[in-house]
């Protein structure tokens, strides 16, 4: 019986559902799982590259990467990114072997979550945050945008927002643009860690009611699922896509990247749904 041996690198990851999701998929595929959590929150001297090098020497299958290490993973992958995501500035999945290959299952998972929600052509959207998950979400939105639509990106680090917007073909928003943007938005997207159990807050706390409110909202955070932002969006009648919706689709694609096994989403997604944080 083959073994998927790997781990998750990130900060404040004790609540992750990924090991449980991989266990479900391994059980459905005749694999066993050997998985470790590598929480870097309290380790200021953590050496990402050295950790990956050691895992490769030890024969691991690969490594999943989350906040704040996704752009580091992309840099390490270099020219080894899978072709379909080579244009992205982040990687959340590194697959080992003779060569190291970077994947971004946030990107493909988010596109699948949009499809599941029935959101096709993307109109004007404001994205808060330009970090690792935004490096997947913003290009996905641009890929689906309607002609003439605006995908706007705001980040407290304007240089980071500018770099992402330039790569993805999006528009940089400054703080003074946010209220005006709010009056034209069709979708609202949180790609900051605000709302996580360890990062309290709401990236959209500047919002005020308008006569033409947005139609949908997405929050990349899934621990908890119903963040202050997404709870407020639901209460206002917006269609909501949760970070857990993204997670389920991401997990299936991560498992395939590691094992080569393409599971039937219609069979696995309901099983993964039982892992939703309460």
From TrEMBL:
Q: What is this protein called?
A: Shikimate dehydrogenase substrate binding N-terminal domain-containing protein
Q: Please state every residue range assigned to the domain named Shikimate dehydrogenase substrate binding N-terminal.
A: 8-94
PANTHER family, A to Z: BIFUNCTIONAL 3-DEHYDROQUINATE DEHYDRATASE_SHIKIMATE DEHYDROGENASE, CHLOROPLASTIC, SHIKIMATE DEHYDROGENASE
Under the GO molecular function aspect, what terms does this record hold? NADP binding; shikimate 3-dehydrogenase (NADP+) activity
Species of provenance:
Pseudaestuariivita atlantica
> What's the short name of a Pfam family annotated to this entry?
Shikimate_dh_N
Report the GO terms under cellular component. Answer: cytosol
**Do you know which SUPFAM superfamilies this protein is assigned to?**
Aminoacid dehydrogenase-like, N-terminal domain, NAD(P)-binding Rossmann-fold domains
Keywords assigned: Amino-acid biosynthesis, Aromatic amino acid biosynthesis, Oxidoreductase
Query: InterPro entries, from UniProt?
Result: Aminoacid_DH-like_N_sf, NAD(P)-bd_dom_sf, Shikimate_DH-bd_N, Shikimate_DH_fam
The pathway is: Metabolic intermediate biosynthesis; chorismate biosynthesis; chorismate from D-erythrose 4-phosphate and phosphoenolpyruvate: step 4/7
Gene Ontology process terms (BP): aromatic amino acid family biosynthetic process; chorismate biosynthetic process; shikimate metabolic process
């Amino acid at each position: 019986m083959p073994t998927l041996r790997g781990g998750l690198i990130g900060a404040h990851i004790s609540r992750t559902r990924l090991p449980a999701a991989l266990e479900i998929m391994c059980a459905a595929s005749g694999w066993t799982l050997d998985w470790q959590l590598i929480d870097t929150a309290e380790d200021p001297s953590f050496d990402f590259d050295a950790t990956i090098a050691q895992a490769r020497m030890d024969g691991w299958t690969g490594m999943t990467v989350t906040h704040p290490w996704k752009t580091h993973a992309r840099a390490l992958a270099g020219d080894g990114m899978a072709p379909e995501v080579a244009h992205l500035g982040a990687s959340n999945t590194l697959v080992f072997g003779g060569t190291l290959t970077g994947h971004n299952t946030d990107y493909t998972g988010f596109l699948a979550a949009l499809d599941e929600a029935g959101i096709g052509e993307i109109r004007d959207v404001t994205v808060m945050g330009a970090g690792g998950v935004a490096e997947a979400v913003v290009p996905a939105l641009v890929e689906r945008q309607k002609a003439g639509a605006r995908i706007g990106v705001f980040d407290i680090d304007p240089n980071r927002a500018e770099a992402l917007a330039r790569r993805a073909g999006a528009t940089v928003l400054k703080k003074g643009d946010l209220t005006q943007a709010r009056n034209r938005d069709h979708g609202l997207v949180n790609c900051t860690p605000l709302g996580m159990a360890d990062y309290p807050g709401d990236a959209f706390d500047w919002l005020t009611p308008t006569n033409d409110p947005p139609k949908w909202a997405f929050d990349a955070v899934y621990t908890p699922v119903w963040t202050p932002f997404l709870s407020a969006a639901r209460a206002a009648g917006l269609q909501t896509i949760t970070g857990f919706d993204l997670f389920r689709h991401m997990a299936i694609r991560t498992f395939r990247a590691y094992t080569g096994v393409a599971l039937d989403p219609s069979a696995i997604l309901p099983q993964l749904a039982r892992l939703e944080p309460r």
